[in-house]
Design a protein that fits this description.
three-stranded antiparallel β-sheet; disordered N terminus; 12 strands; alpha+beta; about 170 residues
């Protein structure tokens, strides 16, 4: 006897497909932790996905500064075009809520990331476009170290002079 008289499936495959469609309309309330740019961002809910991090657009801005605009996902002058009138790899709508795929954006930007599924922690590396501006400036970041006499010395103390940095590591 059918426990669900209104739901008739012609085959197991049809029933499985119906179940997947119904399940995909529900939103997961799983939280996640995102590490980026020396910050820890707690995201209260994500869309369930085994491979990607889906967040609401407001959390996208908290994570990496990108803002979802009509022209796409934008960070300052950079905008990545995104189709917003239908579901796609970057943006989906579930239960009237838009969800943005942070990991797909990272792939487009060639930004590295790793995930620990056991703790729902995602760590994103620097975006190559950030590194590019550093390389274009041709200036090393300022840092401070102890010299051989125990005095603290900053790289910026030598601005305008030629500097040779010698490094060594034991590994």
């Amino acid at each position: 006897m059918n426990q669900f008289p209104l739901m008739k499936c012609g085959s197991v495959k049809v029933c499985t497909m119906l179940a997947l469609i119904l399940m995909s309309s529900f939103v997961s309330a799983q939280s996640a932790t995102v590490l980026y740019n020396d910050e820890v961002i707690e995201v209260s809910q994500t869309l369930a996905d085994a491979n990607d991090l889906w967040v609401i657009p407001e959390d996208l801005t908290r994570i990496n500064g990108f803002v979802l605009k009509p022209q796409g996902a934008c960070l300052d002058e950079l905008c990545i075009p995104i189709i917003q009138d239908r579901d796609n790899d970057m943006l989906v709508t579930r239960s009237d809520q838009k969800w943005f795929n942070v990991t797909e954006l990272a792939n487009i930007l060639q930004q590295s990331f790793v995930v620990d599924h056991a703790t729902s922690t995602w760590s994103f590396g620097a975006m190559p476009l950030e590194r590019r501006s550093f390389l274009n400036s041709a200036q090393a970041p300022d840092f401070e170290l102890e010299d051989r006499n125990g005095n603290m010395v900053k790289l910026s103390d030598f601005r305008g002079k030629k500097v040779l940095l010698v490094t060594w590591a034991s590994w």
